[in-house]
Amino acid sequence: MLNIQRLDLNHISWCLDILTSNFDSPWKELDTIFENSANRVYGAFIEGEGVGFIVISTILDESEILMCAVNPQYHKKGIATDLVKHSLKDLKVLGVVAAFLEVDTHNLAAQGLYKKFGFETVGQRKQYYRQPNGSYHDAIVMRLSIR
Ligand SMILES: CC(C)(COP(=O)(O)OP(=O)(O)OC[C@H]1O[C@@H](n2cnc3c(N)ncnc32)[C@H](O)[C@@H]1OP(=O)(O)O)[C@@H](O)C(=O)NCCC(=O)NCCS
After folding, report:
1. Which of 33, 64, 89, 116 reaches 20 to 30 Å from 143, CA-CA?
2. Average pLDDT of each block of 10 consecutive residues along the chain (147 residues)?
């Protein structure tokens, strides 16, 4: 059974493992992400094993989803869906009125995830994500009204 809870720095190791298994150049600054009080990190657990997490930064009544990643062995099982659902419920309680995020134009899985919740494309950032081969991918900026 899936369980979702707030994470702290004690959980950084398995979160880093999940990033490394998903990205060629994962975030190196995850410790500062955990330490920043504007950020909330939620983790998904199955029988005590951390299988996914989401990072959300909130300033006043707006939030930004900075990252959502799931252990590849658990992809397509609804884990990210549950993480986003849980987070949006908490943001609503906090009085947040809008959530934003940036996603790689090539990342169709993440775009599908966020579209499911009603996120809409509101902008584009050209040449935003550097690839290991030195080329760049554009980013889409997405927004969701939270009511
Ligand atoms: C994006 C990611 C978090 C989705 O996690 P997940 O737990 O597999 O997602 P879910 O099972 O909850 O799927 C939710 C929706 O995402 C979309 N989706 C997920 N995987 C997909 C894939 N491989 N191809 C297309 N759409 C996909 C679908 O719309 C899906 O809804 P559906 O099951 O009703 O069709 C996961 O693929 C991942 O960790 N990717 C690497 C990290 C990353 O790119 N994060 C996003 C940038 S912050």
Report:
1. 33
2. 96 96 85 95 97 98 98 98 98 97 98 98 96 94 96
Say how far apart CA 50 and CA 32 lie, in whole Å.
Answer: 20
The domain spans of the chain are 2-145
The DSSP annotation for the chain comes to -EEEEE--GGGHHHHHHHHHHH-SS--S-HHHHHH-TTEEEEEEEETTEEEEEEEEEEETTEEEEEEEEE-GGGTTSSHHHHHHHHHHHHHHHTT--EEEEEEETT-HHHHHHHHHTT-EEEEEEEEEEE-TTS-EEEEEEEEEE--
Q: Does residue 39 line the site of ligand 1, with CB under 6 A?
A: no
Q: What's the pTM?
A: 0.97
Residue 54 Cβ contacting ligand 1 at under 6 Å: no
